[in-house]
Write a structure and sequence with these properties.
mainly beta, 345 residues, single chain
Length: 345
């Protein structure tokens, strides 16, 4: 009975010897220790906000082409080609100062009447001055002929004048008079935006504007003044006498036919017209300005004050027009009226 356990012990010993011979080891059933946690990096410190830049002042001097100080010159920081802020003007010594600026690159513009505008990109640091040397605009000739728009005949004694207006002052005040052949001539006109007028006795004034780029030949045609036209008539009475009808309010939101009189006239180019209507009696009269197609033109017809209506229309297009006189009084009693028309084209 004791032989069997002894055999088991021998077998176990032989197994251990085999494992040792193979370089092995007995299995280790003890648990492995957990690895230590890796150290976490310390959080980065939050940078403090940078202190605001100190504002600086831009200073400089503007001089003309001969080096003389230029007073009253415009100097500004150009935000866009048409936006400037802040803005200043030079003093009697040509000096300027623009304060409250952040340091950095900026476009500075300097300009003066009859001089070429200068735009310069500079670094503003509050220390380095920015100076400008202005150059006169080039000057060119400006000539032409003034003639009658209807006959083509030259107009002697016509006056051509460059006007003083915003954005077009460089040639303001220059004047020339046409000779016997209608010719006028300016020897020195600045290359700049310019507005001018042309006038002559008995003629309508003509105004225009342009940018003068170089030697220019520009002819003008003037129209004779149109004497005021006085038109008279009667509107109203029995319907069988009406030669013109139009719709007018007759109450309760309804429209009805009313008698009228039409007076056509023609403008040869864009112009203006002044109309005055007067009448007798107690009729209710209306005045309208229409195109040849019956479309209203100009401002809304004003209400009459007493027995008079004045109507002015500007920028009246070239073409055919109609002035309509309306009797809007219920019953349409015959009413005598006078219409005065003056127009310029």
């Amino acid at each position: 009975m004791s032989a069997l356990p002894t055999a088991k012990r021998v077998a176990a010993a032989l197994a251990l010897l085999a494992i040792a011979a193979c370089g092995g080891s007995a299995p280790d059933t003890a648990p492995s220790p957990s690895p230590a946690p890796a150290p976490q990096p310390a959080p980065s410190p939050v940078p403090a906000p940078a202190p605001p830049q100190a504002l600086v002042t831009l200073r400089g001097i503007v001089r003309d082409e001969k080096g003389a100080p230029m007073p009253d010159a415009f100097v500004a920081i150009a935000r866009t080609p048409n936006s400037f802020n802040p803005v200043t003007y030079t003093d009697a010594n040509g000096a300027f100062a623009i304060g409250g600026l952040e340091p950095g690159l900026k476009v500075v513009e300097a300009r003066q009447w009859r001089y070429q505008t200068i735009d310069r990109e500079v670094y503003i640091d509050g220390v380095t001055p920015v100076n400008f040397s202005m150059q006169l605009l080039p000057q060119v000739t400006f000539t032409g002929i003034v003639s009658d728009a209807d006959s083509g005949a030259p107009i002697p004694g016509a006056v051509v004048t460059f006007l003083d207006s915003p954005g077009a002052r460089d040639n303001a005040g220059l004047t020339a008079v046409s000779d016997g052949a209608g010719r006028y001539r300016f020897e020195k006109v600045y290359t700049a935006n310019s507005n001018f007028s042309v006038s002559a006795s008995g003629y309508q004034e003509w105004r225009n504007g342009m940018h003068v780029f170089g030697d220019t030949v520009l002819d003008f045609q003037l129209r004779r003044l149109q004497p005021p036209q006085t038109l008279t008539g009667t509107v109203g009475g029995p319907p069988e006498t009406w030669t013109c009808t139009t719709k007018v309010p007759i109450g309760k939101g309804l429209l009805g036919d009313a008698p009228c009189r039409d007076f056509p006239f023609t403008t040869r180019r864009t112009g203006s017209a002044d109309m005055t209507l007067t009448w007798t009696g107690s009729a209710t009269m209306q005045l309208q300005l229409l195109s040849s197609r019956g479309v209203p033109e100009g401002p809304p017809p004003p209400p009459g004050a007493g027995n008079r209506i004045d109507l002015q229309a500007s920028y009246l297009a070239a073409g055919d027009h109609v002035i309509r006189v309306i009797n809007a009084l219920p019953g349409f009693p015959p009413t005598s009226f006078t219409l005065t028309l003056s127009y310029r084209d």
